[in-house]
Amino acid sequence: MSTAPSPALIHARGLVKRFGDFVAVDGIDFDVAAGEAFGFLGPNGAGKTSTMRMIGSVSPVTAGTLRVFGLDPATDGPRIRARLGVVPQADSLDLEITVRDNLFIYGRFFDLSAAEARRRADELLEFVQLSERAKDEVEPLSGGMKRRLVIARGLVNEPDLLLLDEPTTGLDPQARHLVWDRLYRLKRRGVTLVLTTHYMDEAEQLCDRLVVMDKGKIVAHGSPRELIDRYSTREVLELRFPADGQPQLDGRLEGLADRVEVLPDRVLLYTGDGEAAIAGVHQRGLQPISSLIRRSTLEDVFLRLTGRSLVE
Amino acid sequence: MNLARAGVVLERNALNYRRTWRGSIIVSFVSPILFLAAMGLGLGSLISHGQHRLVAGYPYLDYLAPGLLAATAMQTAALETMYPILAKLMWDKIYESILATPVRVAEVFIGELSWICVRLLIVTTTFFTVMVAFRVVHTPAGILAIPIAVLTGLAFGGAFMAYSSNQRNDSGFAALNRFVVIPLFLLAGTFFPITNLPAVFQAIAWLTPLAHGVALTRAVTLATPMAPPAALGHLAVLVAYAAVGFVIGRRNFERRLTV
After folding, report:
1. Which residue of B has its CA nearest to A157?
2. A128, B30, B43, B175: which could join A148 in a potential S-S bond, CB 3.0 to 4.6 Å?
3. CA angle B218-B221-B223, nearest 5°?
């Protein structure tokens, strides 16, 4: 269980989501405090999106307790949603109306007057650098622009809590950095961010605290640094061997590192001292075609916890 | 229930319509002109109303036009409730976005149904204008054909929305067109009296809203007398269909969109 200083903006205990016989979320506990950036990290199918949809008060809770702003989504859905911004996984923009009208009409759904909705639409287009596309249709926009427009749409009601489901999946590096920059700015303004991702670098960049989910359960929680310290070593030595060489490694790396992980395409040696490990490898007469010493990342944490890579 | 929010759902459709209304209005004018010219005047010229008196000796054009008005309302309801609804439900995820705001499913449903009302009003008013130009409206009370036709469209609209919100792909729409919309268009009194059908089909025709809508639009534009109980009976069927469609449609929307 992951605790945060009260009052919690989101409070979940024993939260369950079932679809028929399938258990998508299997009894998770967490709290999110105001002003935090909180992440759900996990592979596809871990239950991240189902959790987000329950927090967003669009998907009914199957069992357990969930409070958002201290309110129960089952009875206070519209009041909760009035204070939420949602950036869904799929862009789901309105392709039949213009870029500006997407923001305008969304503001109207939050009971804004037409004048106020127009004012915020223009202000947000500025914020996400889309002002010059205001009168265009949505379809010709690039993936990164669409994503920025969806983020702008999620801000039209000036939310206290922004839910982002895989905010940068499918974007090129430049577009990702622009999105991250805008999210930092929001965080600085005091907006609470809750995001899901299967990119460890995104989680490291954005999240103060995160939980790692696997098969509907939370398998670890903490800050990115804490998780790495707890579940991984300081350094990782990555070795690549010729395609046919790897099977013959049996036991020959033993003792060189705290832990050895043999993946289909490479071997990972978890150690406090990468230089010493590579020296040991050479001493034993092994000849990898490449070697790389790097810092541990959340990907290593995930591999350790679930035995699987995040992005498959 | 917050009707203002349902109103914004309507407003969203109006924003979209602002883009396409010109073409849409032209179609709404041209289509009745073509139908009335071809079927009413062209085909109608082959129909001698000396021997085959259709209704009180009016020319075929005059007989056909109010029937087509009601049938057009049905077709408009079908057009507006099939692809557009499933697209917003499934492909474009418009409803998913709307439901992330304070708007509730019921408000989305009512907003969409209101928009269908608006569309029906536009299409039937355009059609009626063409009828006036063709001089087939025989009494000022004929203008009542507009609200009757809108009601006929609504009698189908809710039920069609209920049907659409159960679809997982668009193949069901071909079936709805083939087995409901087209047979009714051809057989439910638009082109010839239902009494010309075999008894079984007559019974089936009267079970559907279109036959009742046609009976009423025809009575008001031709100014043929209709006994008040009969008129009320026709209206009651239309209202009942609209009400049942509303209840089932709203329930199906709720089921589909709450997961």
Report:
1. B101
2. A128
3. 95
* Interface ipTM: 0.89
What one-character DSSP code corresponds to residue B39?
A: I
For residue A90, list chain B residues with Cβ-Cβ distance below 8 A. 93
Could you tell me what percent of chain A has a pLDDT over 90?
62
Interface of A with B (CB under 8 A): 19, 56, 58-60, 77-79, 81-82, 84, 86, 88, 90, 92-97, 101, 105-106, 108-111, 153, 157
Q: In what order do the strands lie in the sheet with A8-19?
A: A22-33, A8-19, A63-68
C-alpha distances in Å from residue A36, one per residue of A160, A194, A307, B115, B194:
11, 8, 29, 42, 70
Residue A4 is predicted with a pLDDT of 45
Q: Across the interface, which of A86, A92, A96 has its CB nearest the CB of B16?
A: A96
Q: Hey, is B100 helix, strand or coil? A: coil
- Chain-centre distance for alpha carbon A54: 16
Q: A24 near A17, Cβ under 8 Å?
A: yes
The candidate with the shortest Cα–Cα distance to B132, out of B209, B77, B54, B69, is B69
DSSP chain A: -B--SSSEEEEEEEEEEEETTEEEEEEEEEEEETT-EEEEE--TTSSHHHHHHHHTTSS---EEEEEETTB-HHHHHHHHHTTEEEE-SS----TTSBHHHHHHHHHHHTT--HHHHHHHHHHHHHHTT-GGGTTSBSTTS-HHHHHHHHHHHHTTT--SEEEEESTTTT--HHHHHHHHHHHHHHHHTT-EEEEEES-HHHHHHH-SEEEEEETTEEEEEE-HHHHHHHHS-SEEEEEE--TTTGGGGTTTTTTSSSEEEE-SS-EEEEES-HHHHHHHHHHTT---SEEEEEE--HHHHHHHHHSS-S--
Chain A hits for B89, CB-CB cut-off 8 Å, are none
User: What gap in Å lies between CA B259 and CA A92, rounded to an integer?
Assistant: 17
CB B136 within 8 A of CB B54: no
In this structure, the number of other CB atoms found within 10 A of the CB of residue B24 comes to 14
* Residue A264, pLDDT score: 81
Of the candidates A40, A53, A66, A91, the one whose C-alpha atom is nearest the C-alpha of residue A302 is A40
Q: Reduce the secondary structure of A223-245 to three states and give it as a string.
A: CHHHHHHHHCCCEEEEEECCCCC
| Residue with token string 């006994």 | B227
Decide the pairing of beta strands A209-214 and A37-41.
parallel
Q: Is A268:A236 a contact under the CB 8 Å cutoff?
A: yes
Q: Which residue type is seen at A60?
A: P
* Count of helix runs (H) and strand runs (E) in chain B: 11, 0
Comparing CB atoms, the residue among A90, A96, A111 nearest residue B102 is A111
Query: Model confidence over A20-53: pLDDT tens digits?
Result: 999 999 999 999 999 999 999 988 889 999 999 9
Least Cα distance to B32 among B72, B63, B62, B60 occurs for: B72
- Write the pLDDT tens digit of every residue in B143-172: 999 999 999 999 999 999 999 999 999 999
Scan for tokens 């009894």, then name that residue. Answer: A27
